[in-house]
Amino acid sequence: MSAQGSPLSSWPPTLSDAQLASITLLATTYALSHGLVYLPVETVQPPAPISTIHAPLALFPSPFPRRLFQLAQRLQNTYNVLYARVATDDDFLDRVMGAVEGAGRVDEFTGQLWRRWQKVRDEGIVQPLHLGLFRSDYMLHSPGNGEPTSLKQVEFNTISSSFGTLSERSADLHRYLRKSTGYFGVSPYLTADNFPPNRTTAGLAEGLSEAHKAYGVPGACILFVVQDGERNVFDQRWLEYELLETHSIHVVRQSLTQLGQTAQVDPTTRVLRVASSSGPPVEISTVYFRAGYTPTDYPTAAQYDTRYALERSRAIQCPSIALQLAGGKKVQEVLTHPGVLEGFLCDVARWGEQALPQAAADELRASWMEMWGLDEDVDALGSGGAVQREGSGVRRARERAGALVLKPQREGGGNNVYKEAIPPFLDSLAVEERAAWIAMELIAVPEGMGSYLVRAGGGTDGAVRADVVSEVGIFGWALFGGADRAVREKEVGWLVRTKGKDSNEGGVAAGFSVLDSILLV
Ligand code: ADP
Ligand code: MG
Ligand code: MG
């Protein structure tokens, strides 16, 4: 198929106002009837929800090259193994966190978690297993210099990877719109074969249930640690319903603040029990964090102490503090240093028969943009010295500011510094804080992509046509940490978030982007 007329050069097809109105009606009605929803913004939250609004959504799926989608799915298996191995390499994480935190305790949040993890290790680990529910995020990269469009990683999430179950419903929505209207015959690409399946809910719940089984007490519960005032509760509840329906596992939902009152760790057995309002304390097999990734989840020392209490218990943590730290931006950058990735994946002396082929590492490396640390000491971590040759990380960041994003050790969106904002930001950044930041080349997203977007709750706007950028996430789980060093893992589904082109950040919950799905082309 030539680029001319391909959905990759121009999208979406044009709809008449009447067609658009009719599709919007079908879409929001479907979303509301299938749980593709959020809690509404309430000034006073009722004790139990009384209404919902539909999630922000796109009316058409976004075109994505089939070969790059398959590549992203394949890479997930490698990433699952990689991050399992990173999270169980204490020396490596201590080295990276030591550099981030530095002598001056520059990143207080990371330091708080790291210190508690060290304390747990000093006391002796009673639960070697870790569970990861991961999401690796990518964008299409079209530098426009004759290079073919490629797949580039934005980041790898190891904590609170959200929108798995709602993205399944978003994919179902687009499949329904196609089936119900044929999208009015406006594009020959809107055929069933081009709508890939997305069974993320079953896949993520399977990861949780595997951890639960490994814990070995069938009557135990899984604890969901959630934020107070969370509006994205249905994305979490769908996992809860799947655990009950398919695996007969009960879930307890509490915030870190509540758990400060309700969680007890037996001093001898380290069994974690949580009291709930509806009955006696229950034993917890697995702790699944949908909170705890941002400093605001720890308003006082008590929440950090609760995290520590959970971590030192016998319950399997999803993620452990180690795995959360492994998902930091600084680790992502250090992995790009020469030989580091290869050491984790392919080193036969280290991994024996579990070593992966060099090709797996090569394929993964090819999905990375260039990254470096803002601190000049980045070479101390064992890189080949590219940064040193070209001068300090900061100088290079100033020189290339227009093509860069700077990222701190934070999750959840809204933390990055882009392009022309970089030089003044660097002027204001204390020298000792540089260690907590990485610079990353900006991915050059393809031109010509548009979509019809419907904001959360719709309002009176209906659908709005916008030039857009899409970010694809691939979900996976990994259960690891046993003495045999085996990693049980699976790739389990995907997510597409689409945002207006002029918005730098892409958080759905933050209101900048919509839930979308993939049209394979
Ligand atoms: P967070 O953990 O806060 O989600 P991300 O690394 O995902 O941090 O950055 C947030 C958003 O910034 C991404 O969703 C994406 O829209 C944008 N972004 C991040 N890195 C890049 C990059 N290298 N090129 C283009 N956009 C990026
Ligand atoms: Mg993130
Ligand atoms: Mg992100």
UniProtKB/TrEMBL annotation:
Its EC number is 6.3.2.3. Its cofactor is Mg(2+). Homodimer. Mg(2+) binds at residues 155, 157, 411. Residues 220-326 form the Glutathione synthase substrate-binding domain. It comes from Fibroporia radiculosa. Keywords: ATP-binding, Glutathione biosynthesis, Ligase, Magnesium, Metal-binding, Nucleotide-binding. This is Glutathione synthetase. The keyword Nucleotide-binding applies. One of its GO terms (cellular component) is cytosol. Binds 1 Mg(2+) ion per subunit. GO terms for molecular function: ATP binding; glutathione binding; glutathione synthase activity; magnesium ion binding. It comes from the Eukaryota. It catalyses: gamma-L-glutamyl-L-cysteine + glycine + ATP = glutathione + ADP + phosphate + H(+). ATP binds at residues 155, 329, 407-416, 418, 440-443, 471, 499, 505. Belongs to the eukaryotic GSH synthase family. Substrate binds at residues 135, 159-162, 230-232, 236, 290-293, 497, 508-509. InterPro entries: Glutathione_synthase, Glutathione_synthase_a-hlx, Glutathione_synthase_C_euk, Glutathione_synthase_N_euk, GSH-S_sub-bd_sf, GSH_synth_subst-bd, PreATP-grasp_dom_sf. Pathway: Sulfur metabolism; glutathione biosynthesis; glutathione from L-cysteine and L-glutamate: step 2/2. The keyword 4Fe-4S does not apply.
